[in-house]
Design brief:
Blueprint (H helix, E strand, L loop, with lengths): L1 H74 L5 H22 L15 H9 L41 E6 L5 E5 L4 E5 L5 E6 L4 E8 L2 E6 L3 E8 L2 E9 L6 E5 L2 E5 L3 E6 L4 E6 L10
Antiparallel strand pairs: 1-2, 2-3, 3-4, 5-6, 6-7, 7-8, 9-10, 10-11, 11-12
Helix pairs in contact: 1-2
């Protein structure tokens, strides 16, 4: 019965993470649409604003030319008919430019108005929830079969030092649907998006041995020396939160109820998440290589 309660709690926690992941994806889509619409408004404003500034500059220049012509007309004598004729022609030309400027009405009295997508808002408002919550029973006799298999290129380009070969010793799914994999051959941790493209990576001096989830966006990774790295993913960026160095070698790692289980060849160690050893179990014979 205790095992059933534990399984139920795990299923509940995982479902909560799935709901939060869908909610985040919807929020990201709305945010992207908002940024795109805001950018469109900014482009329109910049274009119209620049046109208005140019028209104002033209008005200022025409006014200055009118003043210069007026002064010229006042200063010349009437008997200088040739000069009067030239000034009059310039005046006529300036008048035509003024009329043409005032006839431009494309950018006058313009205001902005946002017409939102009512159909999208109506669709969301008509939804009663993000999805249906269903229950199912586990079948202990169920046989798991591979229904499909695809290949993906996880090599990091360019000049990353990645070879054509990769040895994946661990893969963990994060709450947002991304995957973090440990490549022991290239001594790297790589982050894959939901389309299995490498979007980030982190190199290490030692060889990774095994990896497990510890939270929605964190994993624990052990190396072939004595180090345990807690790795967190934030906005497609991989970072090492902290490192615990043990007095024994590390072969396998597992996580359960806020406890870390680490194995060397002969012993299983139980540590708190802070790195304090709580207890250990030694084997009389055989070898321990991994935690499951």
């Amino acid at each position: 019965m205790e095992k059933q309660f534990e399984t139920l709690q795990i299923s509940y926690d995982e479902t909560l993470l799935e709901i939060a992941s869908v909610q985040k994806k919807m929020t990201d889509v709305i945010e992207k649409l908002g940024k795109r619409t805001t950018s469109e408004l900014q482009i329109m404003f910049t274009r119209i604003n620049e046109t208005c500034k140019n028209e104002m500059q033209c008005h200022t220049e025409i006014n200055q030319r009118y003043k210069l012509l007026q002064r010229g007309i006042e200063c010349i004598k009437q008997e200088n008919k040739q000069l009067v004729f030239i000034l009059c022609k310039k005046y006529d030309t300036l008048s035509e430019e003024t009329d043409s400027l005032y006839e431009r009405k494309d950018n006058r009295d313009i205001n902005f108005r946002f017409q939102y997508e009512a159909s999208m808002l109506q669709l969301v408002s008509e939804l009663s929830s993000l999805g249906k919550i269903q229950t199912y029973r586990n079948n202990p006799n169920q046989v798991i079969k591979v229904s499909d298999m695809t290949e993906h290129n996880i090599r990091v380009y360019p000049d990353s030092g990645d070879s054509n070969k990769a040895t994946i010793i661990g893969i963990c799914e994060l709450a947002d649907g991304e995957f973090i994999i440990a490549d022991s051959f290239n001594k790297k941790v790589k982050l894959l998006d939901d389309s299995f493209n490498v979007v980030s990576h982190l190199s290490f001096p030692s060889t990774p041995r095994q990896m497990c989830n510890v939270s929605a966006y964190s994993v624990a990774l052990i190396f072939d020396d004595r180090d345990l790295n807690f790795i967190r993913v934030n906005r497609q960026r991989i970072m090492v939160e902290r490192i615990i160095t043990f007095e024994h070698f590390c072969h396998g790692i597992g996580y359960h109820n806020n406890d870390i289980f680490v194995t060397d060849a002969k012993t299983i160690y139980c540590y708190s998440i802070e790195g304090q050893c709580k207890h250990k179990i030694s084997l009389a014979q055989g070898m321990l290589l991994r935690c499951l």
